[in-house]
Amino acid sequence: MSIVLLFPGQGSQYVGMGLKYYRASEEARVLYQQAEFELGYALAQLCSGGPDEQLNKTEFTQPAIFVVTLAMWSVLKHKYPSPAFVMGHSLGEFAALFVAGVFDFLDGLHLVMHRARLMAKVGRCVAGGMVAVLGTPLASIRALCEDVACRVGEPLGIASDNSPKQVVISGTESALTMAQQLAPEYGIRRMQRLPVSVAAHCSLMREVRTEFAQILAGITLHNPKIPVILNTTARPTQDLDLIRSALVDQLTSLVRWRESLLNVALLGGDHFVEVGPGTVLSGLVKHTLSHVSIEAVDG
Q: Is 163 a catalytic residue?
């Protein structure tokens, strides 16, 4: 059995996430305490009791998911001592890199805090969001995005190719509104707004790439002990230079999740374990791969 660890990203949050691990583990509680000192607010209370409106704001969502995921991992790591690969969806890539030993918890939290701050800043300047398009060929979705972007003169594009059944688009509010209006012309019947307050993996994030790269340059990275499947390349790597550039590119680039799953399966990955809030990634594996086992560890 070749274990692939999966770590979820923004949109998987919910009030009450991680609560049972917080209650059961001193090691998990220590991570929350360290995070609260750095963040300056009661993270455990926000995760356990909300409110939803605050938890769904990017500047709170991203640190919350990162900490909850790693608190869960602190309890579960003894159960999965030798994973063959790690991979995380968007924000989840930071948890994957932590598990691979690329940076420590506080450095990872520092990066996630600033990533969230910068993305939220863009969101305050330009209203945007993300919408899941269900059961539609990728070519039709791409054609819709190109049509809308041309008509409104604002960004709209594919942010994440998640599975044969789900693709996420990202852009300005006006572009998303027009996309929903024109969707039937492209054979699109089902679209679902995601609980995300910014247009991630979109050209709108271009303006914060330089600042994030500068922040990342101040963090010491270590060679990964486990191959990491990167969102931007869909391939495993242990190359630090590639990891560093990928974390910056990820702000504006497509998350190649479907391709990542197919590639890691070809490399022998056959038991997928999702660690973090929710079970979204387990569903994407189910819709993409056959003849693999899937385990979701929510909490």
A: no
